[in-house]
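# step 3/5: fold
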Amino acid sequence: MTRTCFRAAAIYIAALILTFSGCQNEPGDVGLSFISPNDTTGVKYLDSVTDSLTVTSSIYEKAVNTYGATFFFVGKYEQFESKSALKFVNIPADYDSATVLSATINLRAGDVVFQNKTGVTAFTVYKILTGINLATVTIDSITSSTVGTTPLGSYSGVVPDTQFISVSIDNQTVKDWLEYAADTSYAQKNYGIMLQPSSASTTIRGFYSFNNQTANLPYLSVVLTKNGETDTVRIIAPETVSLSDAQSANLPPERMLVQNGIAYRTSMMYDLSKLPSNVIINNAKVELHVDGKASYISENGSRTLVFGLINDTSGFGDTLFTNAFPQDSVTYSVSLNQIFQNWNSGFLPNLGLSIKGSFELQNLDRFIFYSNEVADTTLRPRLKIYYTLRN
């Protein structure tokens, strides 16, 4: 064979190799890096919509403690209500027997509301009658005997962003706090106060909590006299916590709910009976679709969700958390390979997924998703699993 013929033959063979390799069915973005070439027989695909996998959901309320939040919330909006507890405990011990001339609580509003910035914020101040730990208290532990019924002060008005409001409170109550600071055996204890929303409120306003810079902190201003001298004492509130609730979930039909602050979460169950046992799951992708008209996300809120594996159905305990971000204005998509692999291998029981907001302790933002009951199948929660059979 001449050198020219040999080169032509080599080029022809190379072209054949490229042609056949280009015709192979590559699975694309299904996570081939997770697959051992000695342990597989090909990638397969399962879709909850096209393969009729059963997906169910339920909404549950999880009382949370918001002690570490940047804001505390007070007010009412429709069926939603937030009250807040404050403690002024860093009170000087040298003002016993003083006469209190005036006392005001000063609160600085943030730029966080639910849901009407121009609405009225209205609340009444009451004494807390028993010792509660603000760092652990939740709304389900507050009873009618926790808070007094005698008003100590009140406020009603439209609160501008970043502005302070001042609320005059009962002089005798503040005098009792001064006496208690000087002598803890004093009969009237200082357990703090509750800001309880009143019926005139048409919005829920966020105020800066103690977890902020000094200029934004809530404080008590007291004008008093002792030994013939008048003095003004400024006492910062070192502890605050919100206690939020809703009379009902007020959920549109065929929907799922995730709401911060209260908090509402959604659990989802997936029937994996059509998925062969002991397979390699290359990608398990969960998709949710948002009902934007029914949802409310504040200007400074986070759209991030947190998915977890439920490991305790009695208390909805969860673990293995994964953040989920919006792919566009209406769709969330998250890969949960580890969770589905644990379920399918039998390593962990399939008790479902928990879904909550990443800002669950920070605000009252409300996410509404289409459930598996909605007629339009393109809006239903969707599970896509790419998996590989083991040899």
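# step 4/5: annotate
The chain has two domains: 27-62+263-388, 71-245.
# step 5/5: archive (pending)
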